[in-house]
């Protein structure tokens, strides 16, 4: 047995017992230590770096670690074996990308404005914002020796009198505490009511003089990032917001690796635990704490997520999702309650899963399409959701067509050596001086925040600026020299954005040719998908009236730069609209509005799915798009003009 | 800190850490050690005996422990304090009375005959034995790239085709495993179906070629004893039977002490854990094991129990049940599923609680009344359930009146120094030779089984025989001398039934004047309740056509002897019928028959409850009945004749 000590930049070290030859990444997973492994440990992504502090590891060499770094002790955990007692440092850059949870009380701000605008748009599209929840004060006569009706019948009788309803039921949890609440409140209570079919359902009973809120949760479960908001179901007010990395990431960065892991013995439970106990419940707990709401006051949840994420959340066997003919277990399931999943909420809280339409277009897209309102316009709109998978919806009030492409996690900072989510310390925007090649950037967080890494919108800017300044060529290869330009022993170039001394990072923040190549593939996947889908309908991109860009890439996204690198089609910039996390705003509207819930099903049922992976054109288009901006420069006239001008 | 070692006649010792002065019974409870404490630790019952093996305890003296026993190391745990390291032995006699679980495969035998007869009687009373469960084989076409319907819709579509039903839902648990089952079975499955309102509900999906049973559980939760049977819902066959002591007994022998305990901090959880995790789940697990049925194949449960027991089972706040005006939280609750309680069964299995009609007449009585069929006869019947509480129902097809009296646990062997349940080693019948005063007895169990203690039917026989032989007088005082008759220092008499050398016990099996007094109070409570209820309706006992005796007292009950001691009215012996555990047989019929479920509600709604505790006559009647057979000998003419003859 060897003793492996994991140290962290912040936090208590963890000691683990390993057998000789044990894989370091697997050991870390067993001890629940967060080390990034987007490729799930096959050595290809280079993210699972650790630094030797004492002792030795039996590590393979890799292009991801330069000789200089290797000499400094850097190793990839996934290709390292334990050979004796050893101490390693797990860098925080990993956890910044992974798990840092952010919670905020919200009553204003940019994000709230997005939700407000979404509600406004949907109202104009004829969606009524009413739901089945209400709060009713019910006085009762206390029992006597001559009036010994049991408590549940007494309450139901009083409710029938107050509401005129015929069928009224109490949840089991209400029954458990009813006697005490009635007696503590002198038989004057407030009831939280909802409806199930023709039945009025009592979700909670509280003393009449207590301040009470009726709340629900809207949650977007992305493959990489999870976001949620706690919502007052009666007013629509957003009481708190939280986001965190999806705890499943240590089992793979993409849906395929997670499905494979879930099919291993105990895998479904492990992945469910990672999303529920390690991600959602801590987020819900923090939101409730910050807004002083007991978790038992959460009476309804709406979850928008891709097909794999909602299958894994529910613990549903999902192997067929990844194998031809790609069959999900469900598009929609009515039957799930919070207690089935062990989610922090009233046990009887119903979980609405935004409907999937196929194995690769899920509830995040139907919810996002709902909130984009493209289904209500005569003009033609393109909806682009930039997640770990990129999904597109094109159409108008007459038709909707969708497709999906595998972009990888680059838009959320994955697959990029200094990548991170758009949280504190992320470089979200960047310009580079063409002469001096010195960068200027905007960083997420408070004044004085030092840079930690690059989020998606920052990467677009950096690549676009490097290209505009002629520092990299159309293939993403460094072609100028300078102080900030480096080349490793293999001749691979990189650009230093921030030196370690100026950064909150254990090493210089730089973008490498490997990063740029990864990002070009991601943007190439998106652009070629757009091109194929639009042209297969005999449209060309100039006929698109609106482009709605959604996703966790960050509100800092510079559309001009995105066009410059050939990620989006070269259309008038005013056609672009960044609509934030449309999956979450869609979930929010479904939570609040019965009509929105009906509409999202209508959208799901009506949407056509176009399979790109079996489309013979797609690979050619993709290869052509893996270029800055594109091998067919004629598709990007304004970019060409700018580069020439 | 002191170290307390608990030793057992069988089993591994348990070491407990105690602070000086800590109460030994409370310490044992904290360590989950089963020590009987029917009086919940107030020193009155004398059951919580332990024997000092080394070290000392600070113990109060008590009449329950003779000087000789005290010198031998016997102490009562409830009045002993830890003062240093100590080793005590916890006698098995306690666990024989408490927790010994008995499981049997059943396909014939006396008990099965009782269930069969009950079903026959109910059928003759017009009750149809059909329920909503069925098993259906469903073939499906596997999905292809051109037919990508998700699995749940594919199954529902096939079921609609096979059944013609409109509304079909799958449970969440079915959805979780559906993809795997469909593919393991080449899309040929068997579905376990039930109905909820107008909806057909799929409770399980299994490969078509698998041998499958559709099962349910009928459970009787008594205050002292719990019994259950595993039933084939399609055929009615009883697959296994189990009984065990109610694990809650360490929190008090009667419902009042348990309610008090449940209202203490954490009490509801503790009592729920004792009945669910420590009693029911082990029983269910053993029944499933013995009949090779997975617990997930249990799709429905019917539980018959008194009002307090079903409140505590559900974790419902129940303090008002014991306090004027004695209000239960519910008579009936529709909302409970197995997963709400963590019971071993399909998560979605519905739990039917036989309806209560008041705080002191519960579902055990409505279920028992159902199975007795007294509601279907023109003749007048008296139904007597001898449990820890005694409950009576009197009436016919026109009316039903009920009352309850607190008999204590004597009928199940509690409150009797050598008492035990009617399991292996229990003396269930006894005769005594009038000349020699030597006893002869019948013991529950295999040939050669040595006696362990006395069960209810045995106690009736012993007291009746002692009285008939003139060994005790009408007050239960020993009035003859002999080898088997002893007197302690206080002059209190006892009769040795079996010497320790002939018994499977740590001491002689004897019945004391205290035991006899306890039993006389129990039988007095029953007889006076009968007398008051019948006479309040202007009946007299001779007008009763049938007396149905139910309860765990054992099938060995000798009605003649029960009349002899004045427990039952002096009517023709052929009017008596022992109907076994009618609460369990009632639960069994409710499980199998929708009409029986409707009928038990009808019975519950139509039954009148007569409160004895506020009846001014009751105390007088009770005092008069605490005599062998009764102070008014004229009520027992045949007994008088026998004693005189």
> What percentage of the residues of chain A does DSSP assign to strands (E)?
15-25%
Tell me which protein chains meet in the greatest interface and how many residues each side has. Answer: A-B, 49 and 47 residues
Instruction: Tell how many strands the DSSP assignment of chain A holds.
Output: 29
**What is the mean predicted local confidence, pLDDT of chain A?**
91
Largest sheet composition of chain A: 6 strands, mixed
Which sequence of strands runs across the widest sheet of chain A? 8-15-14-13-16-17
**Gyration radius from CA atoms of chain A, angstroms:** 26 Å
So how many helices of chain A?
Answer: 19
User: Structural class, judged by helices and strands of chain A?
Assistant: alpha/beta
Which keywords apply here?
homodimer; 645 residues; alpha/beta; six-stranded mixed β-sheet; 19 helices; 29 strands
Structure in words:
Two copies of one chain form a homodimer. The first copy, chain A, has 645 residues and is of the alpha/beta class. The first copy, chain A, has 19 helices and 29 strands. In chain A, the strands form seven sheets. Chain A has a six-stranded mixed sheet with strand order 8-15-14-13-16-17, with helices on both faces.
């Amino acid at each position: 047995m060897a003793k492996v000590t994991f140290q962290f930049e912040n936090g208590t070290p963890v000691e683990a017992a390993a057998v000789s030859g044990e894989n370091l990444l697997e050991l870390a997973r067993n001890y629940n230590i967060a080390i990034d492994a987007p490729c799930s440990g096959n050595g290809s992504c280079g993210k699972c770096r650790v630094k030797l502090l004492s002792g030795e590891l039996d590590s393979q060499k890799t292009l991801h670690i330069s000789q200089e770094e290797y000499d400094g002790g850097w190793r990839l955990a996934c290709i390292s074996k334990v050979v004796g007692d050893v101490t390693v440092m797990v860098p925080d850059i990993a956890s910044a990308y992974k798990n840092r949870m952010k919670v905020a009380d919200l009553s204003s701000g940019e994000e709230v404005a997005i939700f407000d605008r979404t509600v406004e748009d949907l109202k104009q599209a004829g969606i009524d914002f009413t739901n089945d929840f209400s709060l009713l004060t019910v006085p009762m006569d206390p029992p006597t020796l001559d009036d010994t009706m049991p408590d549940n019948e007494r309450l139901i009788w009083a409710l029938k009198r107050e509401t005129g309803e015929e069928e009224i039921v109490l949840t089991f949890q209400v029954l458990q505490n009813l006697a005490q609440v009635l007696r503590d409140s002198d038989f004057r209570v407030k009831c939280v009511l909802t409806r199930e079919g023709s039945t009025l359902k009592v979700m909670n009973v509280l003393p009449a003089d207590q301040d009470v809120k009726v709340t629900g949760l809207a949650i977007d479960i992305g493959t990489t990032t999870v976001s949620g908001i706690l919502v007052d179901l009666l007013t629509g007010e957003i009481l708190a917001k939280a986001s965190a990395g999806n705890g499943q990431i240590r089992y793979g960065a993409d849906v395929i690796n997670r499905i494979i892991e879930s099919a291993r013995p105990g895998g479904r439970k492990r992945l469910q635990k990672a999303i529920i106990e390690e991600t959602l419940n801590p987020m819900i707990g923090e939101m409730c704490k910050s807004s002083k709401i007991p978790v038992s006051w959460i009476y309804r949840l709406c979850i928008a997520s891709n097909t794999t994420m909602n299958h894994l959340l529910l613990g549903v066997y999902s192997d067929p999702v990844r194998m031809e003919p790609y069959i999900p277990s469900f598009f929609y399931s009515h039957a799930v309650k919070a207690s089935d999943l062990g989610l922090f909420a009233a046990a009887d809280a119903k979980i609405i899963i935004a409907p999937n339409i196929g194995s690769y277009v899920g509830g995040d897209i139907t919810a996002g399409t709902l909130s984009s309102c493209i289904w209500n316009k005569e003009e033609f709109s393109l909806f682009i959701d930039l997640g770990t998978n990129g999904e597109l919806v094109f159409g108008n009030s007459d038709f909707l067509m969708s497709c999906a492409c595998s972009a990888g996690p680059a838009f959320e900072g994955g697959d990029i050596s200094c990548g991170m989510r758009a949280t504190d310390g992320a470089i979200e925007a960047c310009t580079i001086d063409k002469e001096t090649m010195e960068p200027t950037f905007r960083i997420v967080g408070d004044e004085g925040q030092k840079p930690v890494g690059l989020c998606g919108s920052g990467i677009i800017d950096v690549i676009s600026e490097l290209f505009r300044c002629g520092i990299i060529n159309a293939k993403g290869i460094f072609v100028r020299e300078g102080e900030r330009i480096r080349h490793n022993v293999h001749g691979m170039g990189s650009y230093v954005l921030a030196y370690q001394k100026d950064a909150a990072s254990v090493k210089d923040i730089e973008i490498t040719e490997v990063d740029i190549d990864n990002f070009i593939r991601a943007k190439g996947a998106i652009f070629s998908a757009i091109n194929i889908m639009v042209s297969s309908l005999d449209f060309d991109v100039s006929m698109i009236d609106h482009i709605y860009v959604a996703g966790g890439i960050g509100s800092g996204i510079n559309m001009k730069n995105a066009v410059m690198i050939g990620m989006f089609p070269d259309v008038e910039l005013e056609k672009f609209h960044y609509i934030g996390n449309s999956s979450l705003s869609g979930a929010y509207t479904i939570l609040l509005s019965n009509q929105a819930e009906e509409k999202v099903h209508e959208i799901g049922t009506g949407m056509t799915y176009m399979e790109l992976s079996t489309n013979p054109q797609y690979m050619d288009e993709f290869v052509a798009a893996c270029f800055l901006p594109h091998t067919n420069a004629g598709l990007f006239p304004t970019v060409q003009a700018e580069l020439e001008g």
